[in-house]
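User: I'm putting together notes for a lab meeting next week and I want to include a structural view of one of the chains we've been expressing. I don't have a solved structure, so I'd like a prediction I can at least talk through. The sequence is below, exactly as it appears in our construct file.
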Amino acid sequence: MKVTLEEVLSEASQYLHRVIDGETIVVYQGDRPVAELRPTSETETLRPIGLAAGEFVVPDDFDDPLQDDVLDAFEGR
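Assistant: Thanks for the context. Below is the predicted structure for the 77-residue chain, given as structure tokens.
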């Protein structure tokens, strides 16, 4: 559902009840989406540490300074 910011401000409880019922609402300011109201899920357990262990390797040169041409590209030179 798409609504304007003004609609949400004037009918906040109506939209909150729709979210509680499982609906996702995208809030627009003019033609631009600025927020999304959606139900949250409560998790009783935390994600385990090391969940992605072995999925990737950080290279030894990760913290080394960037090459000049790469740095120039990032800085728009």
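A couple of points you could mention at the meeting. The mean pLDDT is 90. The CA atoms of residues 64 and 74 lie 16 Å apart.

User: Perfect, that's what I needed.
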